[in-house]
TrEMBL record:
It comes from the Bacteria. It comes from Carboxylicivirga mesophila. Residues 51-171 form the Gfo/Idh/MocA-like oxidoreductase N-terminal domain. SUPFAM superfamilies: Glyceraldehyde-3-phosphate dehydrogenase-like, C-terminal domain, NAD(P)-binding Rossmann-fold domains. Keywords: Signal. The keyword Lipoprotein does not apply. Residues 1-28 form the signal peptide. This is Gfo/Idh/MocA family oxidoreductase.
Length: 467
């Protein structure tokens, strides 16, 4: 297989960074909305590509499957692999998939000869490696959910096979595809803030999201998934590496699981919120309040309910993972973590992941020698140190296809699929900014940050050595 050293990887990363950015058609004035140029919306394909969805849950169905459902002139879903019957049947019905191409598990897909152009792999983290390797061996291009795999060695295996097979492998770092972050990247690369000196970045997970996904949910245990800095925050290491545009040299990290453990369970609490818990009414993590009363976190896809009535939700809470007391789960991932990264040319980055917030939306501040840029994914501000003037963009006014069924991740889900479909159709990986080649270093940053955390904050070298 092809051997990748630091020089070759940096070259690949540089090519990805040099791809055309999505410009803005912002009108003059201080309050400008982020828009997409007409050319980005008029690239019609001569014929659709074909794809197989492997994993038809939240991401496979609600994000990528919905794009396919509303853009069947661009992409045809011709197969589905999903162990939960309701999810599998939903996809099969939407796309008229014949019975012989409806599979229970990913292994069954590869018992047949290749019958599509691409795979959409949206399985749980621990089930990325198997279908990715099998798919590459059969000649598929693929859209692969992050994290790439559970270990650095497995990530390397996928990269090597992708290179050997000359396959397009897009990693779902959807933030790169948002108009908000593309504009931030454009400002930095234009030199308008001079040389980047340092970066501050906060990822406020929000306490209910934390309890849902990273305590009760699929990503609460690192052995079953990946550490928090990969399962959640590889979005952040990736977007920050992309924005800075230089290689990372060193990292140190601190963090722990402070709240969600049994020793913090209130007196009178029970193993489930539905078991007569004495403190349920006063608990901010009450599953009855979150899922039944507030109707948060989309019961239909999390619980796989055909209808979300009070009784069906309560029954799910009595028997399923989302009804468990947050202090009595099998979770072990951190609920707060700070990481410091040093890049080439002495650029420094301070990154904080914080679960205990009432709000979401990442906050980013980029400090340069001639100005700075900062934003919270709702508003983006550029300050020019020479003119002492500010420009502000309204990131809430996104120009997204009106027929799109979703606006996930600030439009990133949509525009990732838009670019992926065209990369496969034209066999042109340069249409993507998040190929596996471009995504490897940010994954290594996460793996090394977690190793530093487990070694009491020891400074770790980030040496990108890909087998």
């Amino acid at each position: 297989m092809t051997k990748w050293d630091r020089r070759n990887m940096i070259k690949a990363l540089g090519m990805a960074a040099a791809l055309p950015l999505m410009p803005t058609n912002a009108k003059a004035g201080n309050d400008m909305s982020l828009q997409l140029p007409d050319t980005q919306k008029s690239d019609k394909l001569k014929k659709p590509i074909s794809a197989i969805i492997i994993g038809a849950g939240s991401r496979g169905w609600l994000a990528y499957g919905q794009y396919a459902a509303s853009h069947q002139d661009e992409i045809k879903i011709v197969g589905v692999a999903e162990p939960i019957p309701y999810r599998r049947e939903r996809v099969a019905k939407t796309f008229n998939i014949p019975k012989d191409r409806q599979f229970t598990t990913w292994e069954h897909v590869f018992e047949q000869a290749k019958f599509a152009d691409a795979l959409i792999i949206a399985t749980p983290d621990h089930l990325h490696y198997g279908p990715a390797m099998a798919g590459l061996n059969q000649g598929y291009d693929m859209l692969l959910e992050k994290a790439i795999a559970q270990t650095w060695e497995e990530c390397n295996d996928i990269l090597e096979l992708a290179v050997e097979k000359n396959a397009i492998v897009a990693i779902c770092h959807v933030l790169r595809y948002t108009p908000y972050f593309r504009k931030m990247k454009q400002i930095i690369d234009s030199g308008e803030i001079g040389d980047v000196v340092s970066v501050q970045h906060l990822e406020p997970v929000a306490r209910i999201h934390m309890s849902h996904s990273f305590v009760r949910g699929n990503w609460g245990n690192s052995q079953k998934s990946t550490p928090m800095i990969l399962s959640k925050s590889c979005h952040d290491t990736d977007i920050l590496r992309w924005l800075i545009g230089k290689s990372c040299k060193r990292v140190s990290s601190f963090g722990s699981l402070s709240l969600f453990k049994e020793r913090n369970a209130p007196k009178g609490s029970t193993s489930r919120c539905t078991d007569g818990c004495a403190v349920e009414r006063n608990c901010p993590f009450s599953a009855i309040k979150i899922y039944k009363e507030w109707r948060n976190w989309g019961q239909h896809f999390n619980f796989d309910l055909r209808s979300a009535s009070d009784e069906t939700i309560l029954n799910e809470l009595r028997t399923g993972p989302y009804g468990r007391c947050v202090y009595r789960c099998d979770n072990n991932v951190v609920d707060h973590q700070v990481s410091n990264f040093e890049f080439e040319d002495d650029v420094t980055l301070s990154f904080s992941m914080e679960a205990h917030t009432h709000y979401g939306h990442r906050r980013t501040r980029i400090f340069g020698t001639m100005g700075d840029v900062y934003g919270d994914m709702n508003e983006l501000v550029h300050y020019n140190a020479i003119t002492r003037k500010k420009r502000t963009w309204d990131a809430s006014k996104l120009s997204v296809d009106e027929n799109a069924a979703f606006h996930g991740h600030g439009g990133g889900d949509y525009w990732l699929m838009y670019d992926f479909v065209r990369a496969v159709a034209y066999q042109d990986p340069k249409r993507l900014t998040s190929t596996i080649q471009a995504s490897m270093e940010s994954h290594l940053m996460g793996f090394m940050a977690e190793e530093s955390r487990l070694k009491n904050g020891q400074v770790m070298d980030v040496n990108l050595k890909v087998r």
